[in-house]
Design goal:
About 45% of the residues lie in helices and about 20% in strands. The protein has about 250 residues and is an alpha+beta fold. Strands 1, 2, 3, 4 and 5 form a five-stranded antiparallel beta sheet that branches. A three-stranded antiparallel beta sheet has the order 6-8-7.
Length: about 250
C-alpha cells in the first residue's frame, strides 16, 4: 500500500498527508486533481480559542481552512477600539488577500470558537493556484462574497441598534458552528460589536427576557431561533442570501 504522504485521494476520502480528515467545504468542492496539487502543503492545526491568526496590517504567512470552529474578522483602530467585519467557518478560509497576490491583510483574524483545520503557506498556495483554476475561482468567489458581507455588516453597525445587531451576530455564528450553545463571553461580544460590556449585557438581557436566548457564564444558548430571526435587522436576511451562494444556507 502506498504511504499516506505519497498517495492521492478520491472525492469523499480526503485527508492531508498526515491522514487528518478534511471537512472544509472549499477543499471538498474542488476536483481530485486540484486537491492533490494542494494536499502536500496542508498542515493540520488546532485552533484554540482567542488564537490570533492574522494581525491588522501584518504580513500574511499562512492561509487557514477551518474544519470546525469559528474565526472572527475584526477591524482594529489605532486607539484599540474594535468592530466586527465578518465571521468564517468551514465554508471558507482566511487570508483572502493572498489569493489575489497581496502580502498583507487589513483585518485581524481571531479564533472565537475553538476548532481545527489546515493552514497553507502563502507562497505554496500562490504557486499551486497557477495550475488549479477551479480552486482559484473558488477562492476569488469566496473573497468577493465575503467583501459583500463586510459591506453589509458595516452598514448594520452604523444604522441598527445593539439588540438587532446582537441577534444578527448570534444567528450568523450559529449558522457556522451548527450548535444551539455558543461558547462566547459578553466581553468578546462587546469586542465584536464595537461597544462595551454593559451595553452588550443589557441587550442580551432583553433577548433573554423575551425567551429568545439563555445566557450562562461563558456561553449563550439560542432557545427560539425563529423569534431571534424576527428580532434581527434586515441585514441577517441579506447576509443569509450571500451564505446561500457559498452553500452554507
Amino acid at each position: 500500500m502506498a504511504r499516506k504522504d505519497l498517495q492521492t485521494v478520491q472525492s469523499g476520502e480526503r485527508t492531508n498527508p498526515a491522514g487528518k480528515p478534511v471537512s472544509n467545504k472549499i477543499l471538498l468542492s474542488i476536483s481530485d486533481s486540484e486537491y492533490n496539487s494542494l494536499r502536500p502543503y496542508l498542515e493540520y492545526v488546532r485552533l484554540p480559542n482567542h488564537l490570533v491568526l492574522h494581525e491588522t496590517g501584518g504580513r500574511l504567512e499562512f492561509a487557514y481552512f477551518p474544519n470546525r470552529g469559528l474565526i472572527s474578522l475584526v477591524v482594529v483602530m489605532k486607539d484599540g477600539r474594535t468592530a466586527e467585519a465578518g465571521v468564517v467557518g468551514n465554508e471558507g478560509f482566511t487570508g483572502a488577500p493572498a489569493a489575489v497576490g497581496l502580502s498583507r491583510g487589513l483585518l485581524r483574524a481571531v479564533v472565537q470558537v475553538a476548532g481545527d483545520g489546515f493552514r497553507v503557506k502563502v507562497g505554496a498556495l500562490q504557486k499551486t493556484l497557477q495550475s488549479t483554476p477551479h480552486l482559484q475561482m473558488m477562492l476569488n468567489r469566496y473573497a468577493a462574497i465575503r467583501g459583500m458581507q463586510v459591506a453589509q455588516t458595516a452598514a448594520c453597525n452604523r444604522l441598527h441598534d445593539i439588540k438587532q445587531r446582537l441577534a444578527r451576530w448570534l444567528l450568523m455564528t450559529q449558522d457556522r458552528v451548527d450548535s444551539g450553545a455558543l461558547p462566547i463571553t459578553h466581553d468578546f461580544l462587546a469586542t465584536m460589536l464595537g461597544t462595551d460590556r454593559p451595553t452588550v449585557s443589557l441587550a442580551a438581557g432583553a433577548l433573554q427576557k423575551k425567551g429568545l436566548i439563555e445566557y450562562t457564564r461563558g456561553a449563550v444558548k439560542i432557545v427560539n431561533r425563529k423569534k431571534l430571526e424576527d428580532s434581527a435587522c434586515e441585514c441577517y436576511g441579506v447576509i443569509r442570501q450571500y451564505d446561500g451562494e457559498l452553500g452554507l444556507k
